[in-house]
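Notes from hallway chat w/ T.B., transcribed later so I don't forget. T.B. wanted the structure written out for a chain they're using in a teaching module, and asked if we could keep both sequence and structure tokens in one place. Agreed to drop them here.
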Amino acid sequence: MARTRCGSGPFFGSGTRGTIDVVKVLIVDGANVVGSVPDGWWRDRAGAASRLHDGLARGQWPYDQVVLVVEGQARKGVEAGVTDGLTTIHAPGEGDDEIVAQCRVLAERGDDVTVATADRGLIARLTPLGAAITGPRDFHPGR
């Protein structure tokens, strides 16, 4: 999928017209998706993150890239990096802060970003960045 942009900026010279590829990216708020179903995840956060990762990697999603952000104890369940076509990011602190940082970079790049979360505070931070929001339950491994 491509779209045409007019103007200047890092992709174009001043006043030129060009076409860039728009990448559809899904960012999954791991803590919020896992926490959307009370299945005992709190007893094994690493295991819950691993199950979420496996489910996302096996799924057929209408996105070019899928990014899973995990934090805290959940980081022990999934290696950071790209495996099975899924990018996993270990948030160094709060997962929400990492998701906002990722969305900011992707928005500046011109990508079409959707975030899977129901966290109202996070949604309020993402709205000015133009990120679309989808609910977490569609991505829960037990769906």
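Follow-up for T.B.: Residues 57 and 83 are 8 Å apart (CA to CA). Might be a good example for the class.
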